[in-house]
Amino acid sequence: MNACHYRCLLQLFLSMLAFAALGIYCIHNGIVNVSDISKRLLPISKTSFQKRVYFNTSIGLFSNKNQSCSCKGYTLAFQNVPTNELEDLRRRRSEEYRQYRVRRQADVEPFVLAASNSPLQYPIHGFILAPLQKSIIPGLALHAQERKRYEVSLSVINGVLSVEDVMKGAHVDGEGQSVLTISSTSLKQMNNLLSRVTYTSTVYRVKAKDMVHFSFEDHEAIFPIKITRPSVPFLFDPGNDISSQVTITTKTFLRYRELHVLINSIRKFYPEIKIIIADDSLTPEKVSGENIEHYIMPPGQGWFAGRNLALSQVDTKYFLWVDDDYVFRNSTKIENFVEIMEKIPELDVVGGSVGSNQFYFHLTYEEGQAEEGGCLRRTHKLIHQSVPGFDGCYFVDGVVNYFLARTEAVRRVGFDPFLKRVAHTEFFIDGLGQLLIASCKGLSVGHQPKKRQPKYRQFRFPGKLDARRKVGHHFFKNHLKCIKY
Asked: Of 146, 159, 152, nearest to 193 (Cα)?
């Protein structure tokens, strides 16, 4: 036996060893069953391949595995719900979560495996179509060796299939139905017919999907159709200066002295920029000035209700959120925020620092079991990664109460008005997976010296009962089993 034979045997042995290790890993992690391994050693057939190519429900959003998440060291959300309300609340929460999953399914991309060495040509990533509209399915073709007869079939669920301009002598069964069969004695004619196969959506939804099953003999391919209603752009005219790009927003309550210090400091550096104030003070005082909009709310409506009001009146591309006891300094440069946002259009929120406090955090969320709910943890000073091209900027999940944000992006998330006194992280929890957020060094604002304000502190720090209500609110609203701040 020569050296070549030894090398071949060694390569065969290593391949078998790697395959065995992969099988053990898959069995251990529940990816495949033991009884299924032998099937996968066989050549791909229509039956065995179909099991592999459709939705992989053990991967991604709303998986079927639904493993319970660990709550060790967390606050159990249901313990903050009144005992006499818990059973009925669980029932309502379960139904709302079921409906939430139904609504979100249109956003879940199917996990599709492409067949190797398949004679079927198709758009592996599918195509996009408006609801109730018709479109040629792009890229369909058959690449097969010579046969006496060729036959393919296609099937869908939420639409119908047809072939445009069927030629004489072609055999097409199922025109205008959900299952279409095409046969021909000529491969050239077959591909001509496939190039004219159309799909028509028959179910109206703003967002939906369908799956096309495309088969020939023992081969089958499946690819998605994304059915979506096109949305109309909402654009803000950025104008020619910072005042036409950014609005400064704040919420005030019983702190008019601090508010006037803030306004005067803003006017020192930005004399023309618009300032929007939401005010739910118990006894409102008049606040006026050039390009200042002061909105009076019912007394004590709360922190997030005020944020919603202020945001609703913004008509610029960006808004800068500040607290009413901040103070602008020489180092406070709104232009630096805008520069980052303009260079990275995907960014939705950029946070800075208040004094030397560059507060930011990371959120870890596990979906958990549908019956129990998920687990959420906040970790301080933990980042995802650095923002390319900007030293000292990091992708994170939440930032300090001094940030520049895209108006239209934050409006989509909004601020939960249930949260009246103590709320900050909650906005970023609601924006998780929707907002791209960064925290950057060198973007700072000052903080005014703290003063004794007994009446203000009475509302600002409401006590343990308010904290319990907030966690109980998370139990239902965010479908959480437990939470750790």
From this structure: 152
